[in-house]
Amino acid sequence: MGADKNYSLPENIFQIIFEKSPGSLLVKADKSQFTIVAVSDSYLKVTATTREAILGKGFFEVFPDNELQVKDESGARNVFTRVVETGEKIDVHRYRYDIYNSETKSLEVHYWSCSNVPILGSDQKIAYILNTVSDITEEVRAKEAAVESTNRLQMATDATGLATWDLNLKTQVFITSPRMAEIFGHSADTSLTLTELRSQIATEDMEHIIRRSYIKALTTGEYYYEVKIKWPDQSVHWIKTQGIIIFDNDKHPLRMLGTILDITENKRDEIRKNDFIAMASHELKTPLTSLKAYVQLLAKKLAKANDPFIDNALAKADNQVNKMSDLIYAFLDLSRLESGKLHITKQPFDINKLIADTIAETNLLSYSHHINFKPKGVIMVNADMEKIGQVINNFLNNAIKYSPKENPINVSCKIIDNNVQVAVSDKGIGIKQRDQEKLFQRFYRVDNDRIKNISGFGIGLYLSSEIIQHHKGKIGVESKEDEGSTFYFTLPLFNS
Ligand code: ADP
């Protein structure tokens, strides 16, 4: 089938198209005059003119240019002249030309972009210039707003001393604000790579603190750690990093971004407080040890007297001394942990035996609750026996503290995959969902009337959680208010 030759267009179709096209104006290439020969409706509308008023008139007669525009390289006079002289199309990407708004009766700021195309006549000389303009006021405004909001954010971060960072995990491109260099002890104009920044952090902290928080962030999406850094002058400073991970649709990490804050001053305060706790608990330990020795000595001496009151009073005194010494040791551990000096000494042992021994010790101190435990064989783990004993002890003491006397406590120990899971269940007051996540934080105690009269400092579970994490295990709780709680931890099996 051949082309249809029977089409017919109205004679003035091109004029109609021109007049309906957005923002078009045709001027003659008669230099300095630039007579307007055609104009589109939309051009007339934005310039608030009529066709009759401007056709046949010189462009600058209708839209007079001021002194500034005459000098301006991208002003219409210069652009038209250059199009005629060079024969090339010239684009002007942004210029301001204010429009009179007849409704508000005022001049409105407008931004435009335009292109100026030379059009040849039959003699192959430039006869016209086609000037096409588009209103880019909204784009310009949006860009300005974006710049302003970035500036505002920058001012806010500057005021708080925060540095911002953005790491592309695919390309490893790392972008930081100038404050980052200052926090790391360099001048703000130093540009530092991620490797350079990391070299100011101790290798073991990279492994224990930063890697651990990254692994955690892969599931939670939130990145947080506090770590010490060494400045080029060898002084030690502390930073707090907070950020988020952005994942792609397949849940692969794509990008990380966040802030870094210098927390050296707060940390120094905390260290001083820690040192005080360490010193105070250390000083309390010595008199308490001798008090315990005297109580035991007295108990031995007076056993012969066969006086039930004395026996009972001394047993109670011994019990209280033990409670106090547990507390002092917990405070000592806390300060060791905070200063990174909590050492784990691993050895292989049977965890079932440790649980049975810890229960036996607990029964000696408190007979209020019946503790059920049926060990099945020997389960070997490679761990710090004393510290794991402390965790079990803490679970048991809490189960006793937070459940009524007549309710039994059940302890279980079972193998799940390559781990052993130890769980302590009580039928006590239970814990609300919103408190459950926070129990393992330092000094956290549930705030309600029922535990007001139960003594505690909220450090037992924090220490337990740190001890278990140092063993690469997991710790957790399942609980329902008024029904009871199950606290559990897992440890890798020996040789697994
Ligand atoms: P402490 O018991 O000294 O306050 P812990 O760190 O051992 O400190 O426990 C933190 C908080 O968790 C307790 O104050 C209590 O509110 C809650 N808790 C711990 N164990 C139990 C439990 N078995 N039942 C109910 N609440 C518990």
Short description:
This protein is of the alpha+beta class and 496 residues long. The protein is built from 16 helices and 19 strands.
Instruction: Provide the CATH architecture of the largest domain.
Output: 2-Layer Sandwich
Low-confidence stretches: none
| CATH H-tier superfamily of the largest domain | Histidine kinase-like ATPase, C-terminal domain
Q: Which molecules other than protein and nucleic acid are bound?
A: adenosine-5'-diphosphate
Helix content: 40-55%
Query: Could you tell me the strand content as a percent range?
Result: 25-35%
Give the overall pLDDT as a whole number: 91
> Which structural class is indicated by helix and strand composition?
alpha+beta
Give the count of helical stretches.
Answer: 16
The 3D shape can be described as elongated
The total domain count is: 4
Radius of gyration: 40 Å
- Describe the sheet with the most strands: 5 strands, antiparallel
